[in-house]
Amino acid sequence: MIVCGLPGSGKTTLAKTLAAEMPAIRFGPDEWMDALGVNLWDTDVRARVEALQWSVAKELMALGGSVIIEWGTWGRGEREALRAEAVALGAATELVYLDVDDDELWKRIQGRGLEDPPVQRPDLRAWRGLFEAPDSEELARYDASSTPT
Questions:
Q1: Peptide bond before 117: cis, by omega within 30 degrees of 0?
Q2: Angle at 38 between CA 35 and CA 44, to 5 degrees
Q3: Coil, strand, or helix at residue 128?
Q4: What's this model's pTM, rounded to 2 decimal places?
Q5: Rg of the chain's alpha carbons, rounded to an integer?
Q6: Per-residue pLDDT reduced to its tens digit, 37-74
Q7: Chain-centre distance of CA 77, in angstroms?
């Protein structure tokens, strides 16, 4: 399962709930980076953490386990690469897209206060422009998909 959305959209909260219900192993880079004492904005370390997580996730899927990827996955190409590799391993695929308006994102990000440097309100508009929201064609490629409200 891939859970995608912008920062503050609720990916971690939802993924934790789903992981307990399914059960599944959840992979999110923020917690690993925090545990390592690494700044969440360090893109090189984030890429290495996500690559390591994906390597472990593929091993689990090959053994028949369920995994939840909660990296944000802003781009269609990134999501498609993950989906294709999971399918090649024989895993069922699901995409959950969390679409939250900017006012709510801002409220949540401010409430958690995790980012250093702090997120600025204009960042949300910039991120929204970079995020490739799943369309109906992309959603149809998965065994299941949803956009919870």
A1: yes
A2: 125
A3: helix
A4: 0.91
A5: 15
A6: 999 889 999 999 999 999 999 999 999 999 999 998 99
A7: 14
